[in-house]
């Protein structure tokens, strides 16, 4: 028998899981009960639209506007919005920067997001293996140019420092040995086309170049290996990987400094049951609904906009028209550009979102909702909402 879920807790669950919702959706979850409501939110992601562009390979700015618009409109209309908030998490964890990944096209980034969506709920090892072969990641962290004569260490370093073990659990020698193992992991255009001649709709694909690979024996974390796949298997087996990523998941879904007992418990669930199992454990845990963790997170600009647009009944934004172009530019002013985190560590988040200039940009955007006051359904968007004027309250910024 399902445990009861109060309306207040249903609004909290929707806000945290999906970053969007309306009163009737919270009521629907309440009627389901806790466990069925969580399972409903965590069901398999609805497919996103395909992406094609009329832009050339050099017109990357246009491509970026197009994929940003496509993703946000999908988040606004998909029946599985929790999957899109999870895509945002993986995007900030397994980062790639659009402006820094020369050669990669909008289609490549769109396909990377499809990987986050397709594998995001499953075992972390499956997602890690896919991202290790992802053309955007290989281009972004320079592994696509890594050869046995001069192994590039960027991918190996971030794999250990940011994506699996975290600082203090490996040595510089481990990075060097891993870099040797990943030599020859590179990319080419589909159909082996030349970049100068190819359409921007032609994506890169992974290829292993045996001539570039260092086949010699390496010692990684005290184990003898030869290939990048063996390095990944060691990291996927390592308990520290699950502690490190579970802590980041709790910071994203629960609070900035999660208690150590929840980190330890969450890591065990994450390792045994994958990301969906972890989120089901968290969203059905009594601590998740504790007053101590309610309104404990600050909405990122994307979460703020998605929640507010959805509350206002907006289902589509257009970054190509004049009002939409200004909105697109405001994303940079608020500090969160889709597909383009500021660096390999992702967004700092937290109070940084509410620095003076980014916060003023948020408030200025409220003028765009003039005339929609009566349609605003803020029950899920924020606690204590009482009409449109509530949007200037601190609670409007909290998740």
Automatic annotation (TrEMBL):
Entry protein name: DUF1800 domain-containing protein
Among Pfam families, the record links this protein to: DUF1800 (PF08811)
**Listed InterPro entries:** DUF1800 (IPR014917)
| Lineage of origin | Bacteria, Thermotogati, Deinococcota, Deinococci, Thermales
């Amino acid at each position: 028998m399902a445990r009861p879920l109060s309306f207040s807790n249903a609004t909290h669950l929707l806000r945290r899981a999906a970053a969007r919702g309306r009163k009737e959706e919270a009521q629907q979850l309440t009627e389901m009960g806790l466990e069925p409501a969580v399972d409903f939110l965590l069901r398999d992601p609805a497919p996103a639209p395909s992406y094609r562009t009329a832009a050339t390979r050099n017109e990357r700015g246009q491509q970026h506007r197009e994929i940003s618009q496509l993703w946000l409109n999908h988040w606004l209309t998909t029946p599985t919005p929790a999957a899109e908030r999870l895509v945002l998490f993986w995007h900030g964890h397994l980062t790639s920067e659009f402006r820094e990944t020369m050669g990669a096209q909008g289609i490549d980034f769109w396909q990377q997001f499809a990987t986050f969506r397709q594998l995001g709920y499953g075992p972390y090892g499956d997602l890690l293996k896919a991202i290790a072969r992802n053309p955007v990641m290989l281009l972004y962290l320079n592994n696509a140019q890594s050869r046995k004569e001069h192994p590039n260490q960027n991918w190996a370093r971030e794999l250990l420092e940011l994506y699996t073990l975290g600082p203090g659990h490996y040595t510089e020698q481990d990075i060097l040995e891993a870099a040797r193992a990943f030599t020859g992991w590179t990319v080419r255009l589909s159909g082996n086309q030349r970049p100068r001649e190819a359409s921007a709709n032609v994506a890169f694909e992974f290829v292993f170049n045996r001539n570039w690979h260092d086949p010699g024996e390496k010692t990684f974390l005290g184990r003898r290996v030869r290939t990048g796949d063996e390095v990944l298997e060691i990291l996927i087996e390592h308990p520290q990987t699950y502690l490190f990523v579970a802590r980041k998941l709790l910071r994203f879904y629960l609070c900035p400094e999660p208690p150590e007992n929840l980190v330890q418990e969450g890591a065990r669930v994450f390792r045994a049951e994958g990301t969906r199992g972890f989120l089901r454990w968290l969203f059905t845990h009594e601590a998740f609904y504790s007053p101590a963790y309610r309104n404990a997170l600050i909405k990122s600009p994307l979460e703020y906009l998605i929640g507010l647009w959805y509350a206002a009944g907006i289902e589509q934004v257009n970054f190509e028209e004049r009002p939409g172009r200004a909105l697109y530019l405001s994303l940079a002013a608020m500090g969160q550009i889709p597909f383009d985190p500021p660096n390999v560590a992702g967004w700092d988040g937290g109070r940084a979102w509410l620095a003076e200039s980014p916060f003023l940009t948020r408030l200025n955007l409220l003028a765009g909702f003039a005339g929609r006051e009566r349609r605003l359904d803020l029950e899920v968007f924020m606690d204590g909402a009482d009409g449109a004027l509530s949007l200037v309250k601190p609670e409007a910024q909290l998740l």
